[in-house]
């Protein structure tokens, strides 16, 4: 998929301002991977991810596992009742691998409730997306 100049600009902004994982993280590799998901996903929207950046910086003041906590805070059935607009945008624009739901089914699968994983799979399936 070819990225627009705007998409590159939004990703560059996120890459500049989102907190960088540190060696203090329990799983530095996972933190780097999840940060990359956040940065790349931000390029699919029309505005800078200012609220995400604010939330990440608040988490950084409380934990060394910023990105893991960022994703896990939303890992509940309550948050997966309906298809969120950001999820729809990512899934219809080729950015499904940047969704929380995709992370729940893959790299965070062992850290979330199995019911959350199943519901995330169902939501992804709505867009004909199968998860390994």
Give a brief outline of the structure.
With 132 residues, the protein is mainly alpha-helical.
Kindly estimate the percentage of residues that lie in beta strands according to DSSP: under 5%
**Cα radius of gyration in angstroms:** 14 Å
Overall structural class, as computed from helix and strand content, comes to mainly alpha
* Number of E strands: 0
Mean pLDDT: 90
Largest sheet: none
Task: Give the helix tally.
Answer: 7
> Regions with pLDDT < 50 over 5+ consecutive residues?
none
Overall outline: globular
| Helix percentage | 40-55%
Elements, N to C (H/E): HHHHHHH
How many angstroms does the end-to-end distance come to?
21 Å
> How many structural domains are formed by the residues?
2
Task: Provide structural commentary.
By secondary structure, the protein is mainly α. The protein has two domains: 1-73, no CATH class; 76-132, no CATH class. Helix content is 55%, strand content 0%. The chain has helices at residues 5-17, 28-42, 50-60, 66-72, 85-92, 100-105, 114-125. Helix 1 (5-17) runs antiparallel to helix 2 (28-42), helix 2 packs across helix 4 and helix 3 crosses helix 4. The radius of gyration is 14 Å and the shape is globular. The mean pLDDT is 90.
What are the SSEs and their pairings?
Blueprint: H1 5-17, H2 28-42, H3 50-60, H4 66-72, H5 85-92, H6 100-105, H7 114-125
Attribute tags:
single chain, mainly alpha, 2 domains
